[in-house]
Specification:
TIM Barrel; globular; 11 strands; about 40% helix; about 450 residues; eight-stranded parallel barrel
């Protein structure tokens, strides 16, 4: 049942995920920005101003507390997200600020203090994207001899979120009681030295499509960065997370589903295809196969490109607890390969090694995809992932946004003062999470 038939009239949410100088691995060779822009706070400010000109909801930052790829192939984000977002906050008025910070490699009290400070600095525009992070190099940076398995990381994440939300709720209540938390991973007694922000406290975003991630999202998140590739899968995921929210005493509208959307845009389809082919030509031989192998957790290098992906490589993960890649990405990719009967070459092209839906086409093609998913009840909006910055974002702002506005799907002015109002329609959190209330002293 579509959004209009269900009586849903929420505004379309559009964030831009500023990944280095573009989601495409070779973007740094095509961007008008210098190759070292990823290490310059001013670069993120420039992208934020383009996004704010287009009335987008928020700037979204990933994080990786370790060097993940060889810098000769692809420069990686160098600056910690809250540092970048503080710079962006000082130079913008309306744009939301969503930073990814790991529950595995942070302390909940310090993180709660830091992000509530950023939320106050920005006058209520901050959100935290919580991830559990699977990265062996990051584990080495933090002295972990044995990297925690998936169930352990998610138990820690759930408790971490409870502690942070309890501290924030206590701050919103003027620290009247403090918290007294005794858990498996954390013991926290006390209060933050702060009061509430204009939106109460930061929103919570959850990235991940594993069963544990979906349960955490339905229980506690204000928004979900999802990775569904097909419309049917998007509708299924959308309903599941919102059903979990209702089962835990929340409203369906309390959690927004925001799939990633990779865009390569041209004024014509032929121009968009040329842009895509130019990017692909920059990659070393076998790179896309290697990226898809990482997503699936199987080596695909020895299989013919123009034959279907062998079924035995798409089966269930043998040991989900020890699977290194994203289960959500893998599930989405496998489902799409099987339902569409893709060859290996087609799979590589369709997914670009990134695990998100890809649109290569005109501004109308991009707007059509956004409208279809939004009205079908598969998405409340999207986390946009342009191929190359800044022009990939400029094209979206200058050509796609007006189409969406003309269809009555997207705002023509910022009307809310905080990110919470923009996402939820409420100026403050409607209630403390049950888990957080239980742990208030």
């Amino acid at each position: 049942m579509g959004r209009r038939l269900m009586g849903l009239t929420d505004n379309l949410i559009l964030n831009v995920n500023v990944l280095n100088v573009g989601i495409h691995t070779g973007s740094w060779q095509l961007s008008s920005e210098p190759p070292t822009a990823f290490a310059d706070p001013g670069y993120y400010v420039r992208m934020a101003k383009i996004a704010e000109r287009g009335l987008l909801d928020a700037l979204f930052l990933a994080d990786g507390p370790a060097l993940r790829e060889h810098p000769a192939l692809r420069p990686s984000q160098a600056l910690e997200p809250s540092v970048i977002l503080a710079s962006v906050a000082a130079e913008t008025e309306h744009l939301g600020l969503i930073g990814t910070l790991s529950s595995t490699f942070n302390d909940p009290v310090e993180l709660a203090h830091r992000l509530l400070g950023l939320d106050q600095l920005s006058q209520g525009r901050c959100a935290w994207n919580v991830v559990t992070t699977y990265s062996v190099p990051a584990g080495g940076n933090f002295g972990l001899a044995d990297y925690p398995d998936r169930p352990t990381r998610y138990r820690r994440a759930a408790e971490f979120v409870d502690v942070v939300r309890a501290l924030w709720q206590d701050a919103a209540d003027a620290g009247a009681r403090g918290i007294d938390h005794q858990g498996e991973f954390f013991t926290v007694v006390g209060s933050l030295p702060q009061g509430q922000s204009p939106q109460g406290y930061p929103l919570l975003v959850q990235a991940g499509g594993s069963p544990q991630g979906r349960e955490l999202a339905g229980r506690a998140a204000d928004a979900v960065f999802s990775a569904e590739l097909d419309l049917a899968a998007g509708v299924e995921h959308y309903r599941h997370v919102k059903d979990v929210a209702v089962a835990t005493g929340r409203r369906r509208s309390d959690v927004k589903i925001l799939p990633g959307l990779i865009t390569t845009i041209g004024s014509t389809e032929a121009e968009a295809q040329r842009r895509y082919e130019r990017q692909s030509a920059l990659l070393p031989a076998g790179h896309d196969i290697e990226r898809l192998s990482q997503v699936l957790g199987e080596d695909l290098s020895g299989f013919p490109l123009d034959a279907p992906v062998p079924g035995h490589l798409l089966g269930a993960v043998r040991d989900p607890a020890k699977f290194g890649a994203s289960l959500g990405f893998r599930e989405s990719v496998v489902r799409s390969i099987e339902s569409r009967g893709l060859t290996l070459r087609e799979a590589v092209r369709a997914f670009s090694g990134a695990g998100h839906r890809v649109v290569v086409g005109t501004p109308v093609d991009v707007a059509d995809t956004i409208e279809q998913w939004f009205l079908a009840g598969a998405a409340d909006g999207f986390n946009l992932m342009p191929d190359v910055f800044p022009d990939g974002l400029q094209i979206f702002v200058d050509e796609v946004v007006p189409i969406l506005q003309g269809r009555g799907l997207f705002r023509t002015a910022y009307n809310e003062s905080t990110l919470r109002e923009r996402f939820t329609g409420y100026p403050r959190p409607t209630a403390a999470p049950a888990s957080a209330r239980a742990r208030l002293a």
